[in-house]
């Protein structure tokens, strides 16, 4: 156990140190190789860390041997180890996949590009592992600033506008979060999460405490792209380079949700958050709004990446809906969908990236008839779409089944109908793409399209296979989500 604890900081340190080194490396191959090896190494360590805490243990690492709350610590339980495994695992799969696409979309200064990728991922991992609230803000800004630059690398000029819009919204969200953290520090004189939880006057009806929680939840809702604070997301996903769209869709919003849950459950406590304040009702209303608005807007889109972006808004709604049920089973469903959605959305955006790589665009007219020319790519997209819809035997079915069960157990049977309706809406927009790609003829003036090379298809199909594997063998996903929910709730939820 002690050796694993000593390795734990390297999940963040490896990509954080490798990032600046990428800038110094010449050419295209070496920066990509270093970035790939860094994330594979981080994934291996993350797997060992999750195994160490899977049975309910907690790992704590104090930097500089300064004990908390004076010093900064990483505190890892099943909840953040589960999220760290998703971030590092998806990154380790997507970085090898993305090299030819990055060569095509970002032909120059790839050392700087991969440096930003690693810094963004290191920031997300730092947010996930830290037990210090100010460190959450610092790592959030590190990740966000790198992500703004990565989105701006998109070859469409609108990528700059998308990055600037994300910068504005992200700055507002980070400012709200910082104000909330400042309130916590004023009330407690501490920045350590556990120490704050012990000192907070949650039983005294503090108006300042209400304000602090409100600022934190709103700030993280912007980062989460929870309706109606989602407006930065569609353009960011649409105009970013293909690798970046896949990475941030699979990881960034998941980390924002995790941090929100960590504040609600570990810092403020569920008794205060859900009993003293009407937070559950507010989250449920916003979750339902996200589910319907995201699904409806996805149906209306004529660009594949934009459609998938609005789909992500809808899927965020499912995750937040589970939290709003204020039960262990609902929280389990949220963590389960957090993990499974990362896998399915990575597969969908990776498939879309291959279509853009071969077709030159992702408008629905560009995709007409390509199913017969890119059968492996489109089949992978369709199967990942099956998981997004929530059909068996996929990971998406498992997480939606747990969400439905949690809603029934909580006495919110009416939510079952809403979940089924929005799942049917997902069927509509996924089926539309399949119909255009497979059923419609290729335009006469359209250029010939070749299937992607097997080295590009392999990572996509690994992600697709994972969606089906975790729909059959749920020991890791359901077990990890259950332990994550138990670690956060600490017996305070029914």
UniProtKB/TrEMBL annotation:
Subcellular location: Cell membrane; Membrane
The UniProt record lists the keyword Acetylation: no
InterPro entries: CPA3_Na-H_Antiporter_D (IPR050586), NADH_UbQ_OxRdtase (IPR003918), ND/Mrp_TM (IPR001750)
Keywords: Cell membrane, Membrane, Transmembrane, Transmembrane helix
Residue ranges constituting the NADH:quinone oxidoreductase/Mrp antiporter transmembrane domain according to the UniProt record: 131-425
One Pfam family hit: Proton_antipo_M
Cleaved signal peptide residues: none
Membrane-traversing stretches: 6-25, 32-54, 74-98, 110-127, 133-151, 163-188, 208-227, 239-265, 277-300, 378-399, 411-431, 452-472
GO-annotated biological processes: ATP synthesis coupled electron transport
GO MF assignments: NADH dehydrogenase (ubiquinone) activity
CC per GO annotation: plasma membrane
Family statement: Belongs to the CPA3 antiporters (TC 2.A.63) subunit D family.
UniProt xrefs under PANTHER family: NA(+)_H(+) ANTIPORTER SUBUNIT D1 (PTHR42703:SF1), NADH DEHYDROGENASE (PTHR42703)
Name this polypeptide is given: NADH:quinone oxidoreductase/Mrp antiporter transmembrane domain-containing protein
